[in-house]
Amino acid sequence: MRRAYLIEMTVLRDYARQLLGLGLFIAICLSVGMHSIVAVPGLLCMLYFIMGALSTAAYDEQNNWGLYRLTLPVSRRDVILGRYAVIVTLGISGMLVGLIGTLGLSVVISVLNVSSDIQSVFALTQEHVMTVIFTMMFCMLMGVVVASVETPIYVRFGQTKATQWVPLITIVLFIAPFLLFGGSGLFESGAISMESLRQFFAFLETPQGLAMWCAAAIVIATLVLTLSIAVSIKLYERREL
């Protein structure tokens, strides 16, 4: 698997560098445009997970790279494991770039002669840090789910054919939970009340609640990735190239 991972990273090296530079630029622009720093690391993490799934599939069809790679001393199982390792690497890199950009902008704003209102927006207070962590883990989980659903589709059909369906599937992944939750009747039946929701989110704002949320997000992301890897391995082993 390590050999397959290094091969994928070598192929994507230039693209990854461009993505990191672009991510830092996006982090600064988002922070300034939104007048907030809390969402940037999470958004970049989610973006990098999704772009990782897309870029690894796209390179397979460039100059028949997917076919040539199978002539190398790597198994199909190793190819899939290496691909997911690259996707996770890019996702974590996006998170780190977002954190670096957020921290750098906060430091720059703090030393500039700007109004106190602007400094308070970009200051890394305890509340801001906890919000950054919460949104970062939420967006990480969303990015993992989208990448984990899209990658088996790319593996089975190839990037060209899969592109016809992936945008629709991605939209459904974001919208379906809200439709299912809203139409479940949980609020109407009283199974879930607004007061219980307020108490739940108030608990998440505590250090203990945040720690539990982070642990839950990591466990769920790991399970989703594991399931996706197993499906992708089966599909790739059966695929005729």
**Mind describing the biggest β-sheet?**
none
Number of strands: 0
For the record, give the distance between the C-alpha atoms at the N and C termini, rounded to a whole number: 21 Å
SSE pattern, N- to C-terminal = HHHHHHHHHHH
How much strand? under 5%
Query: What's the multimeric state?
Result: single chain
Gyration radius, rounded: 20 Å
- SS content category: mainly alpha
Mean pLDDT: 81
Identify the overall geometry.
globular
* Secondary structure: helix percent: over 70%
The count of helical stretches stands at 11
How many separate domains make up the residues? 1
| Unreliable runs | none
Describe this protein's structure.
Helix 7 packs across helix 8 (166-182). The protein has eleven helices and no strands. The two termini are 21 Å apart. It is mainly alpha-helical. It is 84% helix and 0% strand. It has helices at 2-11, 13-34, 40-60, 65-69, 76-111, 116-122, 126-162, 166-182, 186-189, 194-204, 207-238. It has one domain. The protein is globular and about 60 Å long.
Provide a compact summary of the structure.
The protein has 241 residues and is mostly helical.
